[in-house]
Amino acid sequence: MNPLSTDLTGRHALVLGGTSGLGFASASALAAAGATVTVTSRDAERAANVAASLTGSGHRGLALDLAATPDTDAGTDAFISAITDQPAVDILVLNGGGPPPAAAIDVDAAMTATALQPLLLSQINIVRSVLPQMMTAGWGRIVAIGSSGVQQPIPTLALSNIGRAALAAYLKSLAADVAHHGVTVNMVLPGRIGTDRVAALDEARAKATGHTVDEIRDASRATIPAGRYGNPDEFAAAVAFLCSPQASYITGVQLRADGGMVGSF
């Protein structure tokens, strides 16, 4: 394979939470680049239907609940056993659903523990399950779908800020450990992207403040230099690039796809 190619033919990608939002957009971009993709969802039927809709053939859908403890039927232990029957995972896209909105002053230990299971602990288990085969092969890509809150905490999303920042710290540490094995580890940070999750957050914000949803969206757009919400496909293009042979010398980085929203360079 040409090292400057974006062709992912012959590669197997595992996309967690790949049936909606940014996970689905990323799975679609990887499939379009030639990868065989396995997507996960808490609903096995939904995962299978989404896999069948992707460009190309050979894609699969599997059930996985990142919020479940590892030793349950829906947790990562059972899932890890299931993926041993598939081709080795060359590309892992980490993606966990966001916890409910909360201000930092309202967060307690129990809420934090609940948020850390899907955002950190389950994802570490999946990384550890696929990493040895990547290292043996001398090639691998791990890309996490994060949040702009990793770099500029979002006031109403304290639980997400905590969990995703913890995952970022783990991945940055991991990147240095595995780079000489040909495995890259990166994170893409979305800003305001037009997904169902962002729509739900806008609606929740409108209800909490007494404003209309349109007013909330107008206020959000005013904080984005690009003047608009992003498209999921624009975000997914960044994920696909970091998974490609072209990105072989890029590791341990956070790439923002936020239209310039975060105030630092």
What topology does this entry show?
Layout: E1 12-15, H1 21-32, E2 36-41, H2 44-53, E3 60-63, H3 76-83, E4 91-94, H4 109-137, E5 140-145, H5 158-178, E6 183-190, H6 196-209, H7 213-222, H8 232-243, E7 254-257
Parallel strand pairs: 1-2, 1-4, 2-3, 4-5, 5-6, 6-7
Summarize the structure in words.
- There is one protein chain.
- By secondary structure, the chain is an alpha/beta fold.
- It has one domain: NAD(P)-binding Rossmann-like Domain (Rossmann fold), CATH 3.40.50.
- The protein has eight helices and seven strands.
- A seven-stranded parallel beta sheet has the order 3-2-1-4-5-6-7, sandwiched between helices.
- Strand 5, helix 5 and strand 6 (183-190) form a beta-alpha-beta unit.
- Helix 6 (196-209) crosses helix 7 (213-222).
- The radius of gyration is 18 Å and the shape is globular.
- The two termini are 34 Å apart.
- The mean pLDDT is 95.
Low-confidence stretches: none
Number of helices: 8
CATH architectural category: 3-Layer(aba) Sandwich
Main β-sheet description: 7 strands, parallel
Shape: globular
How many extended strands? 7
Oligomer: single chain
H/E series: EHEHEHEHEHEHHHE
What do we call the CATH topology? Answer: Rossmann fold
Look at the helices and sheets and give the structural class: alpha/beta
Q: What's the mean pLDDT score?
A: 95
What does the radius of gyration come to?
A: 18 Å
Main-sheet strand order equals 3-2-1-4-5-6-7
Beta-strand percent range: 5-15%
Number of domains: 1
CATH homologous group name: NAD(P)-binding Rossmann-like Domain
Helix percent band: 40-55%
CATH class: Alpha Beta
Task: For the record, give the distance between the C-alpha atoms at the N and C termini, rounded to a whole number.
Answer: 34 Å
